[in-house]
């Protein structure tokens, strides 16, 4: 994984000193609240419903065991003993004291971490596929390109005050696990004959106006990645609206201009940047790639992890089926830890669990792990012969639920329990659904099924692209939940369709059960919910929910 050089470390250390001074001046009454607001947001600090919330960057979701132990320490000594992994592969702490945030940032800097640009109208954390570098369907490792974008975008003087926040995702695999079609910019590695380059999408996003991004360039040579992205940002910065924050995202601009006209404007802007100083040299690309050297894999046979087992095979087999996927190297596997135990807020992890997972990463996965945009954790390089002992440890720690990608493996924002923007609570809804469907045999029979929950229109829970999306809304001071059906966030990205009027919180599990039962009745053999919905349409679901 990428490690700081002396320039990186100096930059982050100086930022901590700067923010400490800003915080002290604010607490002393020397810095107005409105000025301090913008400064704290640039350092990841929000003021939420009950307390400040600090969002810490985990670039493209990759983190070392040493860094995870530091997060466990921060959870224990500066928070309430847990953290929350987000859909942008970051971690949030919900209870830090404002005056102690500079201390937390100093602790983070000691392990090459920071909270820079995790908020504000700037380029946010670059995200990518959690299996990058390890999966069999990969065209090319996307992490070096994500790192180049991260370095280019951090403190970029021209793009530090954009019309609105800006999100970029990169994928190097044939199967999209980074949801590139619903980002402000999506970067997809593609092949053109014997050449590899990028397909560029722009204008995607969720929130108040969900939009699937448009392809604005089918093929871009690798050396031009930064200059072309800069041309997109310049076009957005110039023409994006600043008079109305609800119409300020790039998706509104692309739709207003039309993708074709927007692409023309980008090409015009790019003409002055192409082949200029921002063009990536072979040496610079090699530098980024060298930061992601392959682990020292052993020469291992592609053995069966279940061979020779006598006890625990059924539970282990279920975990193997749902939480373990093939690795590109013989004798290894990719392991997923689903942080979705019933009764625990999706994405939450305790300090003790972080310490344990760090130990497991050291013992079984070269000291590295990945945070996924589904709010889970991946150990990307586990020897197959270690899968059973690893599973035993995870089982005893409550981290081996074999439900990855199933109905109870929900994406869920913190909602009204924490967020001051939320219209309704999300976590109790997730728990109620988990308890209603707390039967692994039934979940395994249902197969792949994605429920996403957001507490407001900002869509931090990505409800627009869930097979079932749940949105909390305010109805005359009462919490109600609007249900959408038919979304997807993989290579077949689709926006879910709203069923109709919302439901009270206690009604939601019944509604979900009706939808699931209809799917079971209507599906053909091995047909996913997504495919069934798009075959039969929304009307049968409306009839079932509102008339039965």
Set out the fold topology.
Blueprint: H1 6-27, H2 33-41, E1 45-47, E2 52-56, E3 62-64, H3 65-78, E4 82-85, E5 91-93, H4 101-109, E6 127-128, H5 143-153, E7 168-171, E8 185-192, E9 195-202, E10 214-221, H6 225-239, H7 250-257, H8 259-270, H9 282-290, H10 313-323, E11 324-326, E12 332-337, E13 348-350, H11 351-364, E14 368-371, E15 377-383, H12 387-396, E16 411-412, H13 427-436, H14 440-446, E17 451-454, E18 468-475, E19 478-485, E20 497-498, E21 503-504, H15 508-522, H16 529-536, H17 539-547
Parallel strand pairs: 6-7, 7-8, 16-17, 17-18
Antiparallel strand pairs: 1-2, 2-5, 3-14, 4-5, 4-13, 8-9, 9-10, 11-12, 12-15, 14-15, 18-19, 19-20, 19-21
Helix pairs in contact: 1-2, 1-4, 3-11, 5-9, 6-8, 7-8, 13-15, 15-17
Distance between the termini: 54 Å
Instruction: Please give the count of helices.
Output: 17
- Radius of gyration, CA atoms, in whole angstroms: 23 Å
How many strands appear in the DSSP assignment? 21
Mean pLDDT: 95
Helix content: 25-40%
Profile the largest sheet: 6 strands, mixed
Q: Spans of 5+ residues with little confidence (pLDDT < 50)?
A: none
Strand content: 15-25%
Structural class call reads alpha+beta
Could you say which overall geometry the principal axes of the C-alpha atoms support?
globular
